[in-house]
Known about the structure:
The complex is a heterodimer. Chain A is built from 22 helices and 13 strands. By secondary structure, chain A is α/β, with parallel strands linked by helices. In chain A, the strands form 3 sheets. Chain A has a 6-stranded parallel β-sheet, sandwiched between helices. Chain B folds into 2 domains: 2-117, 3-Layer(aba) Sandwich (Rossmann fold), CATH 3.40.50; 123-236, Rossmann fold. By secondary structure, chain B is an alpha/beta fold. Classes of the chains: A alpha/beta, B alpha/beta. The interface between A and B is large, with 65 and 68 residues.
Amino acid sequence: MSMKIGNDQFKKRVDDGVNNAFMRFAVSGAQERLRSRRLDAAEELGNWEEWRALGEEIRQHTLENLDYYLEQLTDNVAKRGGHVFFAQTAEEANEYIKNVARQKQAKKVVKSKSMVTEEIHMNAALEELGCEVIETDLGEYILQVDDHDPPSHIVAPALHKNKEQIRDVFQEKLSYKKTEKPEELALHAREMLRKEFLSADIGITGCNFAIAESGSISLVTNEGNARLTTALPKTQITVMGMERIVPTFEEFEVLVSLLTRSAVGQRLTSYVTALTGPRLPGEVDGPEEFHLVIVDNGRSAILGTEFQSVLQCIRCAACVNVCPVYRHIGGHSYGSIYSGPIGAVLSPLLGGYEDYKELPYASTLCAACTDACPVKIPLHELLHKHRQRIVEKEGKAPISEKLAMKAFGLGAASSSLYTVGAKVAPAALTPFMSGSSISKGPGPLKAWTESREFPAPTKERLRDWFDKRSDDGERKHSK
Amino acid sequence: MMKVSLFATCLIDMFQTNVGKATVELLERLGCEVDFPKNQVCCGQPAYNSGYVKESKEAMKNMIKAFEHAEYVVSPSGSCVTMFKEYPHLFEGDAAWHEPAVKLADKTYELTDFIVNVLKVEDVGASLNGKATYHSSCHMTRLLNVKKEPFTLLNNVKGLEMENLENSHNCCGFGGTFSVKMGQISEQMVDEKVGCIAKTNAEYLIGADCGCLMNIGGRIERKGQPVKVMHIAEVLNSRR
Lengths: 479, 240
């Protein structure tokens, strides 16, 4: 459950989100930019649907043979002199990483962007040890400087902040003196970070995809910080979710194209790097020691279930960028480092229903996410499967709702029972009507009528009109 | 003469009867013989989407039986048609119900899809003066893949000027029980939608799904905006 951010209840988090005008303005603008860039980049390929189908096939094949490819990856990393550790839990992963840090007597760690290290709360674990951990991705750096504000988006973690807010954070925490111009802000961060790269003992990265055939790990970035993280410190640790793997470079090429186009609308990012093991004799750069930490942390429990397709995810956030719910509540409302539709599916699976039971309901099932996903994860269907599981297996649905649905099952299965209900409804609702609509409804209508009028039932149902009309017609014919 | 069984949907049967009447008159004018299978109630979507699959299946079986005799099933509601199209998937492995579910799904059409692609009519001879904008509902466009047909028909309505709706891809915030379970979020979504509609200066908001129209219309009414909400069946049945 370490992916959790904050302890507020869902209702409170949504309140905060909805009332945060700055955040909403930043998020809706970013959504529109990222969405249209993605659509342009997809159209440029010409046959996007074929690419998606190929992406889906590659991910499905890999998941179905995950044990084989994990073994191949492990063997090939070892052959190149790297160390591989398979961590079943977040604790195991952190313990291993801390051990490496202890052995190296590390004082300073630089990090490139990685969601899985957020998921396992690795920074906190290293800080307990007395290590200084520095985020070098610009977005993550801003959040770290701002008293560890959690990420609100899986690709653009500081999406919820505008440049004025970032300027204020820099002024307050980094004695920054310049303006909110992005170039000036970035230059300042760059100057601050350059010193850190040069003095770090360990570089830690995430991994976009590991390539099984060669034992390589790949990093897809725009800032170059991941290259510095992996080139300067003597020790490199790469942390990856166990499903982030491709068989060969051939599949890698397809997935990288899908990833960069879907995430930021670019044909390729500025840097696409594949790194294989530590520096070999005769090589001029690279770390002396390389560790690959492969994290399970609940993933293998998803394999083989009706939720397996969620592991196809390549973390592009295309679903987040089109989600109309995310648009209004922002990433922090999800209470998890994984937000948006993918977060609403993944968080209850990795973190449990207790903390995340509301998330599957925070969707209209509009399917914009499913439509946008470059590897065709049926996200809205998975949200629905969660609801079914919550009702049928978890028993977490409210009793009033259960009763209402039971009544629905009976009424909707029989037109005579329905007729009784439909006849009673107008009479029951009469006290609440004003003209042709209801402004203050009882029971479940209350939530509706807080913001909308609800139509009053018509005196004559369509079926009664149709009956009468047919009767009249027959009479006319018989005359 | 083409025989059409009207799948009215519970919302239209009880609340939006005018939409149902317009659908019947429109189909008849286009040369169809329309019947109203009396045993129909609800497609099951409200319970299904809330996770109550067992309860919803009773409603589904009732609908499969109610429309067994039908040659074509036509409905003025994209979302409810989408539910019918899901039946085969939901009854997979059920020896008794799978085949009838497939049959029902195959013969069911959303109204504009039916007019354009089965009746092969693109101009229904309707006329309505004024400026309008169209709300593309999510299930109809994304899951049913009926995207162009409403525009094909609306562009041929005499006197009607269509305005583009900004961010038309965003859901209106209805989502069935979502609208009450997550009322606060739903309100923000419908508010943005209503704001985009206002920006078009349209006199009419047209849609093809009664759920969305009830949601958007309810908010428009509450805010007292001067926009008339019309179902596409009503527009296509207008002759003035």
